[in-house]
Amino acid sequence: MNVAKQTAKKPARTTSARETVYMTNSQGHQIPEHMVKDVDKKRDLTVRLIAAKAMEMKEILSGFKEEIREQIYSFVDFSAKEYGVTWGGKKGNIALTTYDGKFKLLVSMNDNITFDERLQVARELISKCIEKWSEGSRSEIRVLVNDAFQVDKTGKISTARVLGLRRLDIQDKDWQKAMTAITESVQVTGTKQYLRIYERDTNGEYQMIPLDVAAL
Known about the structure:
- Helix content is 44%, strand content 21%.
- By secondary structure, the protein is an alpha+beta fold.
- The strands form two sheets. Strands 4-5-6-7 form a four-stranded antiparallel beta sheet. A three-stranded antiparallel beta sheet has the order 1-2-3, with no helix packed on it.
- A hairpin with a 5-residue loop joins β1 (13-15) and β2.
- The two termini are 28 Å apart.
- The model has no long low-confidence stretch (mean pLDDT 85).
């Protein structure tokens, strides 16, 4: 089914028994079409047509991703059988290149990590350490800690920054307890697969082929 045609033919309009055509605004209110400015009607239609084409491309890219993923796994199975081995699953990272090295495929698996309540315990212990050090020369540690526990616009804490605190060589017992609490607070909530395709340029560097509209 052509999503673009289907979406374009079904704008947010309704018709009453008196044949009055209405358009639904962003608050969900029914507005008689003759009361809607022409520029608003044109904007509505323009966005709908573009969004419909975007939905079509989304379906095409989803099918493309599934197709090439199956091709990659089929090849890995074939390669494993060459050595009398049965491939153990789809959780590991995979790197494939063409014979001439022109193109490269990378399949990577990244865990989605969150922290449980023990992260707050770690934060309290770290605060205790900073209080003990407040008269010393460790102001840079305070900056690192405050930065690590800052949330982004979505209210999430950067896992990389928090886990990065464990790389600091600090032997204070409370700090060590805090690092243990951070480690034990880590929860893997899922795994996401990433598929990237690269082309080698004239300088011998691999450049990712962008499949994201924003990157084109």
